[in-house]
Amino acid sequence: MERFVADRMLGKLARWLRVLGYDTLYLGSAGDEVIRQELDAGRILLTRNRRAHAWLKRGRVVVIEADNPREQLQEVVRQLRLPLAAEALLNRCLGCNRPLVIVGKEEVRGDVPDYVWQTHAEFRRCQGCRRVFWSGSHAENMRHRLKADLSDLWE
Ligand SMILES: [Zn+2]
Question: Measured in angstroms, how far is the CA atom of residue 126 from the centroid of ligand 1?
């Protein structure tokens, strides 16, 4: 599975790739040294900087043209022909990029709103920030939005 490193203009795109289950680092203000390390580690650089083609001798780079995060996501998926696996959706923390772990219902009591706890059976926790995720209306909305945006690519 492809892994990514997104530069500072592409925070929203990074979150969408995490929604799809892709390991995506977001650099914020990190400098060239970090980009170099991550390219060496096999990550694909996502950037809006046209001059980033200089990085091509170092690794794989996608220069993003669109301003809108939804179109940016389409660009990445098309250019790299990324497979979209339904089972990978929402497997990764949107905040800190760590894989989520399925946890028992009792373990998250008190960590989620009561009505959510009572009406849901499956919960996942981020081992980094400890945030709890569950399949609910928010997840469903994201699924629908992705399916609409990427419908011609979805299998
Ligand atoms: Zn997290």
Answer: 5
